[in-house]
Amino acid sequence: MSESKQQGQSGRSRRRRLAPSEKYEIFVSVLTGQATQREAAEQFKVDRSTVVHVCRVAKQGALDALAASVPGRRAASGKSAEQIRLEETAAEIERLRATVLSSAANQLSGAWPGGKVQVSGLVVDDTSRIA
Q1: Which CATH topology does 6-68 take?
Q2: What span, in angstroms and rounded, lies between the C-alpha atoms of 101 and 123?
Q3: Alpha carbon distance 94, 98 (integer Å)
Q4: Strand partners for 122
Q5: Which of 36, 74, 85, 124 is the most buried (most CB within 10 A)?
């Protein structure tokens, strides 16, 4: 039986749960070349696949954090990269929605007597301005 697993009452082995600080130590030691994946697995008494998984997750987390860090913009208070992208996308959708509605209202304004038309809350007069 492997050192990385402990024997449970039912005869099945239990996985060792690593603390976040231990995962970070594994990632840094493998990244800097202080230890190979095999050596890190032996040192922390886990399977090599666990070391590979920890390194993969840590790398993806670092990439996400760097992607969210935009130069010239203050750090978002506790927002993930995905949340920031969702907010930016929602703002873009709203801007495009307003553009499409304005364009539709401008096209329809000449077809109605009086030259005014209201489309989804936007009022356009006969001078093609949004009122």
Answers
A1: Arc Repressor Mutant, subunit A (1.10.10)
A2: 10
A3: 6
A4: 119
A5: 124
